[in-house]
Write a structure and sequence with these properties.
- With 175 residues, the protein is α/β, with parallel strands linked by helices.
- It is built from five helices and eight strands.
């Protein structure tokens, strides 16, 4: 299939409270590469890797590309799906990096640039090439809106956070 005939991938958000089964669902996706950003141990026996400490979007993208190439070398095809486990930890890491490396308004600017750059990377590097992306995210209860939200800051939070950047979303509710 040529690039002009490649189907577009789908971007799905699966969000829920801590220990609601997000990682378990992500681990059951066939032909997937899981990017394990959460700090808790990852005990599933599926292709996965833990990125290096976040030092900017370019480094993250380079490392992801290298891991996808290793996946292709091993399985003779690209992953059908890339699972990000979890985007909330990714956002925490990029926010910490911005706070550590920038000052004043530049902190917020860096957070916005890296957040939107991450989304563009998912769209252009993966989804436009037919690779699905499943984003796992933690939610918190927002007292002001009386609903569960995927935490974010600034304008990104006001426009719906990660929920506003996906094709479909599913919320895992457990008792």
């Amino acid at each position: 299939m040529s690039n002009s005939q490649t189907r577009r991938g789908v971007k799905l958000l699966i969000n829920g409270l801590e220990s609601s089964g997000k990682s378990t669902i992500g681990s059951q996706i066939e032909d997937a590469l899981v990017v394990v950003i959460d700090e808790k141990p990852y005990s599933f026996s599926v292709p996965h890797y833990k990125p290096s400490e976040y030092t900017g979007l370019a480094a993250f993208q380079k490392e992801l590309g290298e891991k996808i190439n290793k996946y292709i070398d091993k399985y003779d095809k690209p992953p059908r799906t890339v699972v990000v486990d979890t985007v909330t930890k990714f956002y925490t890491n990029l926010t910490k990096y911005a706070n550590d490396t920038e000052r004043g308004f530049d902190i917020h600017n860096r957070i916005n640039l890296d957040t939107m750059g991450f989304n563009v990377m998912l769209e252009k590097v993966l989804i436009d090439r037919g690779v699905n992306v499943v984003i796992l995210a933690h939610v918190v209860y927002d007292e002001a809106t009386k609903r569960f939200i995927v935490p974010a800051t600034g304008q990104f939070a006001k426009t719906g956070s990660w929920m506003s950047l996906v094709d479909e979303a599913s919320y895992l509710f457990t008792d």
